[in-house]
Amino acid sequence: MKKRKTTFIMMLLLVATLRTVAQTTPPDATGMDIDARQWTKDVKMGWNLGNALESAGATWDDATGTWKNPWLTDYNQWETGWGNPKTTQQMIKAVREAGFDAIRVPVRWVPHITDYTTMTVDPVWMARVKEVVDWCLDEGLTVVINTHHELWLESHPYYSQQAELLRRLKALWTNIATTFRNYDSRLAFSGTNEVTVSWAAPSAENLAVQNSYNQAFVDAVRATGGKNYYRQLIVQTYATDPGYGLAGFQLPDDVVEDRLSVEFHYYSPYSYCSGTDGCYYYWGEAFADKGTVTPDGNERALHNLFTQIRKAWYERGLGVVLGEYGVSRHYSDAAHRDDQDANARYYLKSVVSEARKNGFAAFVWDNNVFGNGSETFGIFNRNHSMRIDTPHFLEGIVEGSATTFSDEIVEEGKDDVGKDGMEIWSGDKTLAWGSSGMISLAAAAFADATDEVTLVLYYEPVATAEYTDIQMCYKDWSKASFKVGNISVQGDFNPRGYYGVTTGSLITPFTFDDAALQSFKRQGMIIQGYGVRLTKIVIAQQQSAAVTPPALDTTAPLPAFSLGGIREKKRDGQRYLKKKNCLLRF
């Protein structure tokens, strides 16, 4: 009891100290009049100083909350812990000369903490962060600093640890903000990074704790007064995943208006961006003639997701920050390298263009890693005088950055392409794996179709579902091939990935060739899936008016394979897990 009382008294003293700081430093609005939407809109090209100040020189032991097996014993040298040279002003100048006007500087603050009660930062490390920030500002760049890879915080979004983590987070940001209190509006603070539990879908508890982190960050910075009272502050969605944000993000309260931005990250579709084994080498319907493109993400998905984000946040007066995006350089062989590099250029151009069109500040991830494969996000070679080793990356970003803000908001995937077709099923069915969650169409439904057939499905994604899938099968449970637009798909279609939306009604045409049609005519077909609520199915091809919509076939056999096994390989959580095993080094 005595120990608890002593700890409580220490916490009261700490709170009193923080309040004294706020009381003795009144707000200073000088040069801080830009609002959040204008601040993000003004960022034309943003760049991440990746794998530098957030690097580690030891392995984090989450069970004990300590570092072990260090390969760099001097913590203040950890900037080079992941193999990159120390940042210089010449590097920052080269980034600016290439056309970038903003830099996000990820920073790891632990283990540079000398006192965990007050979360005091080692003055040597604080001076180093300040030096890099000053170089950026001297070059005329907008700057963001954050707390990055703070695993003591990011990996524990639980109520049981919430109070202590909020205390530490507030104290840490009080110290950071106090150091930079007199900096002008070109410097923004970003509260956390990727808070997650093994990249699984968040619980209500996880979402609530992340929201409380955002509130604690805002409160701590504002309490330091000075220009921080009006500073641009960036808060995060859970895991910086836009889908989780659209479903579970809660805007923190703020004492000043129009100075908050929301951050998300975009490495989507990961099956294209990652460069890992089994990845796709082409993205977008514009490159469908070059090879197999990823079936769960394209121009439409990018456009619609960013439109959703704009409507949810930007149109409500918030800035929007795309804190990280990028694509690994990966090509299947030398013969296809030029086409696949051109596709990466096109992808980056498309992402930046959509961000600019919607007023988002976008920061490309550059980790100074090159070659052909996973995690090769490098643009500037920091080991060779900032030589640009992936010029197609830079060219795509520059091209996309020329896009200007658009007042027009257009959503895709709403056209009623089946309005003149024959309705063969209607109802209200939430798809699931197995006989109870499937729709079985009899062969008679396809009797009058010739050459090929287009099925038009009317449905909406289930916002709370961990993933979405529509699977088309023959009656022997083998998957049917089809096309959506110019994209060829084998069996499984991911509406959320393809359209980039988590809610709202969708209409999708699925076109099957003659070989598939003949199988349907003999045995009918099965539609099953997950996270989708189906309301109508139409055959778009003109049919005889005498054809009567068939009843459901209730004689279809039960599946003879593991339905769970089919989807586990493709769940979004698994994809993100691969991503993070790649990007995070511990």
CA-atom Rg in angstroms:
26 Å
Question: What's the N-to-C terminus distance?
Answer: 38 Å
Please indicate the count of domains. Answer: 2
What's the pLDDT, averaged over the residues?
88
Query: How many helical stretches?
Result: 16
Q: What does this 3D model show about the protein?
A:
- With 586 residues, the protein is an alpha/beta fold.
- The protein has two domains: 2-411, Glycosidases (TIM Barrel, Alpha-Beta Barrel); 422-574, Jelly Rolls (Sandwich), CATH 2.60.120.
- The chain is 33% helix and 19% strand.
- It is built from 16 helices and 24 strands.
- It has helices at residues 2-24, 36-42, 89-97, 123-138, 151-154, 159-179, 204-223, 242-248, 270-273, 299-312, 337-358, 391-401, 495-499, 514-523, 563-568, 572-583; strands spanning 46-49, 59-61, 66-68, 102-105, 113-115, 120-121, 142-146, 187-190, 233-236, 260-266, 319-325, 361-366, 380-381, 387-388, 422-430, 439-441, 453-461, 469-474, 481-484, 487-490, 492-493, 506-512, 525-530, 532-539.
- Strands 1-4-7-8-9-10-11-12 form an eight-stranded parallel β-barrel, surrounded by four helices. Strands 15-24-17-22 form a four-stranded antiparallel sheet.
- Helix 6 runs parallel beside helix 7 and helix 11 packs parallel to helix 12 (391-401).
- The radius of gyration is 26 Å and the shape is globular.
- It starts with a helix and ends with a helix.
- Residues 1-23 and 542-586 have low confidence and may be disordered.
